[in-house]
Amino acid sequence: MTLTKRIIPCLDVANGRVVKGLHFESIKDAGDPVLLAEKYSREGADELVFLDITASQEQRETIRSLVSKVAQVIDIPFTVGGGVKTLQHARDILLCGADKVAINTGAVKNPEIITELMNLFGKQCVVVAIDAKRNYDSAKGKNVFSDGSKKFWFEVFIYGGKKETGMDAIEWAKKVQRLGAGEILLTSIDKDGTKDGYDIILTKAIVETVSTPVIASGGCGEPLHMLDVFKKTDVDAALAASIFHYETHSVDRVKEYLKENNVDVRL
Amino acid sequence: MTVAIFDYGAGNIFSLKVALEKQGATVDIIKTFDEANNYSGLLLPGVGNFDPAVQSMRKSSKTTFQEYVKDKIPVLGICLGMEMFFEKSEEGKERGLSVMKGEVVILPNKFKIPHMGWNNLKLRKSNPLMDGIPDSSWVYFVHSYRVKPKNDDIIVADSDYGITVPAIVNSGTLYGTQFHPEKSGKVGSLMIQNFLRECKK
Lengths: 267, 201
Fold this sequence. Notes:
A: alpha/beta; TIM Barrel; 8-stranded parallel barrel; B: alpha/beta; Rossmann fold; 9-stranded mixed sheet; 22% helix
């Protein structure tokens, strides 16, 4: 089994610009999506994720044109998400040049859309994004974890991390796999934007629960964090945004570093 | 030079179109085999499901695939497009295009399915599609099925996913790749360039 670990830069897009926030909030500008996409593709990114974080009805046309512009400058797989709620919307995105569609809130509200998407486009097109956050409150019937003395469970959040659902992320992951998800994009809300590493407990738990590929997201501040998540879990891919956007690290340098540390990557 | 992509109506053919255009080809999207074929090559893209894709060809056209290509123009079948070359698939009930002997079977479930990501090619023999591409090059796969040709001789390259996955097949003017050249970075672009060179001949 010689599949490489994938390194995936993520473009969070609002009003046509790449932005970066902390814990899903306090957003700042990070550049032009088309230029960044082209640069990452050239530097050897294994895939690209593009999330429309405004995801409003009015923005949809802008997003469509942006997706096709990005698709024209890259030659690697490309996932688009943000506000996808209907089959028609998913189809629009795929026809604009995306290879996969990521659904989050849309899937929680209407889980059948996962199966419908799979039937129409094939499993490989369907990425279910799960935003999870540690919940330290009552945990009846939940999968409980501990970090030192504190016990918690992982709760699924929707609407860009703004609304809790009461759903256990582990159970939700099992369900989306059963419904036909081809991949899970797993983001830790606790870690997102902190730059202090991926949520290893969350990532490990989900990877050990499902057999679909999992992308770890949220918290990557340096190449060491990628190494860490690959060494401590069997995750398939690591996603990062800010470490690449601000030229702190280039994709190729990060991959060379991983290779030096015996992680199998494509160089 | 103009080539055609057959659109089953199922998904992203934009990337393939762009990849061909980057190598200098003019690209038409076709939805039937009933119109005159003045193309230098044909591409069967790699998105969709077996039955709907095969049906989209049969329902839209009186002319069959075989009649349309007449063993003359090169055809590149990508992923599902290559699977359709064979006689049948475990993904559906429809008969395949049956231009290659053998069947399409699901990957064993002891592996993660789909087989998705970058894997390397193990070259079995030289082939025009592989001109200038070193053995062990990385290409991007995303599929849940693999082909089992009756005759192994048509296999140009394999990939190792715990089991051997035929990655490139070639018989006459028909070329198939289980991976997506249009998504495989520089290596993929080179392969598309090689295919277009065959179309020019």
